[in-house]
Amino acid sequence: MGEMNGKKAYLIVGMARSGVAAAKMLAEKGMSVIVNDVKTKEQLGGALESLNGYENIEQRLGEDPLALLDRVSTMVISPGIPWESPMVQSALAAGVEVIGEIELSARVNRGMLIGITGTNGKTTTTALTGEILKEAGFTTHVVGNIGYPFAAVAGDTRPEDRVVCEVSSFQLESVKDFRPHVAVITNLREDHLNRHHTMACYHAMKARIFARQTEDDFLVLNYEDKGLRRLADTTRARVVWFSSEREVPVGTYVRDGVITYTDGETHTPVCPAEDLLIPGQHNLDNALGAAAAAICAGANAEACARAMRSFKGIGHRMELVRVLDGVSYIDDTEGTNADSTVQAVRAMKADTVIILGGSLKDNDFTELCEAIRDSGRIAHTVLIGQTARQFDETLRKVGYPKERIHHLGTDFRAAIEAARSLASPGGNVLLSPACASFDMFHNADERGDIFQDIVRSLSPAASK
User: Fold this and answer.
1) What CATH number belongs to 9-100?
2) Which long-range contacts (CB under 8 A, 24 or more apart) does 319-322 make?
3) Hey, what CATH class is 319-457 in?
């Protein structure tokens, strides 16, 4: 995998969880490792404590990584570092291989790899696929963008294991030979244009998940996504479809209310769609994608059914936090793009106050604002963050009443309290920002955690 004993080493740039895990994995394989971050050791606090004691890990923190290039053969970059950045381009020009933690881990991994990407639904699909495979009796590792580094397990996997890896477009920028046996793309919507600039580039990044697949592999695609139907013609892998709208040639679909799998000849019932615990049309799609992926990876219909009937979803995705004074507070902080929030809006069955806004990603919110206008359920919008003005302008443009638009700046507690004051008993307060969180928080999970903390701290209204 690399060289040591005075020869060239691996340079890990970015000491978040995946960077730390990559450094440990390489060190335990006997490689020479240099770790680097723009932050100093003091600024990183205890983040690097787990690296203490490794004699083959050298810490060069708060330094320019380019000054270390002559000592390394491979640079492993954080997903937050764009491929077009001057640092990456300088490393490539110097003859240094540049990859990410996902690519590095895939080179070490020995288990069957299931890679899952897409604009929306990939985290839920990843988690449910993992649960199905566990129900099927496989030792299963659920890793990647879902929050647990691939590198933390890659060195310990066995050929009979299953590794379910959520992969973002940022992570796919830095893959090279990454080849999942089963690849899944849930859907393609407008997102991350501040990073990828155009939809064509964004689609190309997502397509890298199957670029190295062969006819021995499977590519699972959402038939209802026209862009994915076009991509099906560009792969060498065997294409497996999922659809909640129609029967598919091979894959999962709904027949008379029952989730069904077909291999092209036989049609095997899995379970009634109404047995799913996770609500909404989008979650039916996620379940169909997960079942198709898990069956390609060796699960049977019975394992799919058991997992689907017990899977309660994951945190921060349409998560009911509390019912206070008759109002349900729902955390959908992972609604980080317009299409995801459209699905949340459509899932509302009572009058709702929605908290919208966050950091800029160059997205168009017209379709979302039209869905808010047409739903009949969004009684008020509370706007926060950098995109508040854009939301205000778009909502007014589509004809949403201006008196129902409320600006709260960057005061998150005030936004929640305003939403509470506007909500009616029997209704909802929904945090589904349709934006990333970096203008006010470290990440979307922190935004959701703080939302939940504030909501739980609210006192019931005094009884009359």
Assistant:
1) 3.40.50.720
2) 319/448, 321/451, 321/452, 321/455, 321/456, 322/455, 322/456
3) alpha beta
The CB-side HSE value for 157 (13 A sphere, CA atoms) comes to: 26
The tokens describing 450, both together, are 């703080």
pLDDT tens track for 61-104: 999 999 999 999 999 999 989 999 999 999 999 999 999 999 99
**Phi, psi values for residue 68, rounded to 5°:** -105, 0
Between CA 174 and CA 14 the distance in angstroms is 14
* Residue boundaries of the structural domains of the chain: 9-100, 109-310, 319-457
Closest to 255 in 3D by CA, of 240, 239, 276, 271: 271
**Mutual angle of helices 301-310 and 122-135, in 10-degree steps:** 120
* Fold type of domain 109-310: UDP-N-acetylmuramoyl-L-alanine:D-glutamate ligase (3.40.1190)
Nearest-angstrom CA–CA distance, 310 and 95: 50
